[in-house]
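Structure first, sequence second, as always.
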């Protein structure tokens, strides 16, 4: 009886493990399919003629829209679309801006603003800086580029930064409710030149760092956009921004903001297996350019992106899709 019971438990465990492996694999492919579908939607939006109205379809993209949703036979994919011009250029922020932004991203940050500035700055002499000496003692040793960052992932090697900050981290505030700090990839980019910040997508931390903005104004602007909705309520113009959030009149013309999306996007797709509820998230950085053979080029790809989950209201709305 004991042997039979043991065999039964072993068989059940093996079957459950195999089922979970299959469901996880399906969720991963749902996420990848969501990214491919989102890229197609972005490309299609570029061919829309001026004045043409895009149908209000969950899978179609229009400027200002954040969430795209796709339904498959055995699951779904929800994709968050964020243009890179909704973030701040890591190569052009001064030390104080870096320190302020890091403090807002994660109150427990260990990021060193001086080290970041040193990393991206040209060497002024042949003498190593204090940071160069630290990197030389690392195992294995490495050297600072002392040049503008070409890839934001370089920031992982800067003193005080690590993978946890790059991907985002969970921390427990005083009320013991788990919260998620934004990934550095959500607030910074490594674009070669600074561009106006897209006010329809920029997170609170980015807006609060801009000239003339207060933390309260940044919160009000983000809240009015209704980012946690499948449809959202993006601003149609800067005049619409001022009409809906009157205090924003003080920053229009003072800070560099716009509603244009540019040609670089971060796509974060969460695939969900309908039967098991297992989900997998994949993130992609893509550049659109009609001169590329496919019309786009993947600039970065991260499987199993951690700590990412669409808002509950988006998931509820997605379940009500026809």
């Amino acid at each position: 009886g004991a042997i039979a019971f043991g065999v039964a438990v072993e068989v059940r465990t093996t079957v459950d493990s195999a089922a979970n492996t299959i469901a996880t694999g399906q969720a991963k492919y749902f996420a990848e399919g969501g990214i491919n579908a989102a890229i197609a939607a972005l490309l299609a939006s570029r061919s829309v003629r001026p004045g043409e109205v895009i149908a209000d379809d969950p899978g179609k993209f229009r400027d200002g829209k954040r969430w795209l949703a796709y339904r498959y036979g055995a699951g779904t994919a929800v994709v968050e679309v964020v243009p890179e011009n909704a973030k701040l250029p890591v190569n052009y922020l001064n030390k104080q801006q870096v320190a302020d932004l890091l403090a807002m991203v994660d109150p427990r940050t260990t990021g060193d603003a001086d080290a970041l500035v040193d990393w991206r700055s040209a060497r002024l002499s042949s003498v190593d800086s204090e940071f160069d000496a630290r990197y030389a003692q690392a195992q294995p040793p490495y050297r600072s580029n002392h040049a503008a960052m070409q890839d934001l992932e370089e920031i992982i090697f800067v003193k005080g930064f690590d993978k946890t900050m790059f991907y985002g981290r969970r921390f427990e505030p005083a009320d013991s409710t788990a919260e998620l700090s934004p990934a550095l990839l959500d607030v910074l980019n490594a674009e070669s030149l600074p561009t106006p910040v897209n006010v329809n997508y920029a997170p609170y931390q980015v807006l609060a760092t801009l000239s003339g903005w207060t933390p309260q104004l940044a919160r009000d602007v983000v809240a009015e956009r209704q980012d946690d909705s499948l449809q959202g309520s993006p601003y149609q113009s800067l005049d619409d921004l001022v009409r809906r959030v009157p205090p924003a009149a003080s920053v229009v013309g003072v800070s560099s903001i716009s509603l244009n999306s540019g040609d670089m996007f971060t796509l974060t797709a969460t695939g969900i297996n309908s039967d098991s509820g297992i989900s997998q998230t994949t993130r992609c950085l893509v550049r659109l350019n009609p001169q590329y053979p496919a019309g786009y080029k993947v600039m970065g790809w991260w499987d199993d992106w951690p700590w990412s989950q669409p808002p509950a209201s988006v998931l509820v709305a997605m379940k009500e899709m026809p």
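Margin note: Residues 106 and 181 are 6 Å apart (CA to CA).
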